[in-house]
Amino acid sequence: MRGPSLPVSRFDRIACHSGEALSLPLDKQIERPLGQDRPAREVAPRAAGMLPGPGRVGGVLLAGAVLAAGGVIALQPAPWRQPEPEVASTPADQPAPQPKELATNTEPPERTAPAAPSIIRVPDEDSSQNVIVIRDPSALGQDLRVAHLPDRALLEQSAHGPLPIRGADGRRPVDVYARPWSGARGARVAIVIGGLALSQTGTQAAIDKLPPEVTLAFSPQGNSIGRWMQAARRQGHELLMQLPLEPFDYPNINPGRSTLTTQATAGQNIDNLHFVLARTTNYVGVMNYMGARFTADRDSFAPVMRELGARGLLYLDDGTSARSLANDLATASRVPYAQGDTPIDQERERGKILEKLDELERTARARGFALGTGSAFDVTIDAVTSWVAEAKRRGIEIVPVSALANDPEKE
């Protein structure tokens, strides 16, 4: 309900934005909506079709001045900005050189089979070509963590058991089962200790005490050769099989069962060879056990050497017979060949053994390498173990026998 009317003569003065006075009755002022007395906003110049006012023109000019000053500063040399690096010009008909290590392709590469590991070897100092040689990964030898496991691709079954063979891909046991070495050209000494598996305690001592660089040779007359082979390979040793060959004054001096003789046929000798080779696995080749008469007989020895070459095995001659034809026959049959310089324990006395080892060191320093052979006697094992530790400190590298072999297939 509306209240009583006030006299019309009572007016209030209300100021408008133009400064004029507007008189309204008080009751009309009460009914007027809020905000009606606010001044009307100016119409934007663009909307009204009018030019901007003086204040806005000044703001535009100020903004332009700021932008112009920034452009001037950007174009100034030091100290306002660092100079751009100089870039050598490239002829128009030649492409600009690209950084060697900058990857421009962000797409993931196509997936391929992983490559086999390789060794990159710096060439010898006397090499006439400044090149980098990438060696065959098979020359690295078997990974020592699985060295006791035979490579099934390098075995064939026979009446005597598994025999070593070349793989279908050309790999040879002499490469796969070889112990890796540095490949350096310093003074190198290889030591081969034979007679393993004949004595259980002696074999255990040889495997446990001798440094892993020392090559071990197993007698086919021994026992538990497979078990000893695995223990030796886990320790990192390179292995050989000893091959009994006919000596002079045979059979009074008898190397043992399955001896290869000059009186046997080639087939009989090959069969005896297979018996020896099947006694275990994971070895790089064979070495003679006696055999002064057999190794001097070309007709008897040549078929055996050809069989070793066909199977990818190494032959080590202990060097005790000056009449041995092993070197010539190995070359003809493409067999990796090594020859011993001296037996180290013909006299089983520690001092004498150490003298022989020192002789090997002198030979290695003069010629670059030397190879000694011995047997698994306690005194030999102890002397070799202590000498190897001292020789390493003198800069001698102890290498496996395969490192010193002359390999016709790698010449």
TrEMBL record:
Which PANTHER family has this protein been placed in?
A: DIVERGENT POLYSACCHARIDE DEACETYLASE SUPERFAMILY, UNCHARACTERIZED YIBQ-RELATED
SUPFAM superfamilies found in the cross-reference section: Glycoside hydrolase/deacetylase
Give positions of region: Disordered.
79-122
Q: Where is the sequence biased in composition, kind Low complexity? A: 103-117
Q: Which GO terms are recorded in the biological process aspect for this UniProt protein?
A: carbohydrate metabolic process
Q: Which organism is it from?
A: Nitratireductor mangrovi
Q: What is this protein called?
A: Divergent polysaccharide deacetylase family protein
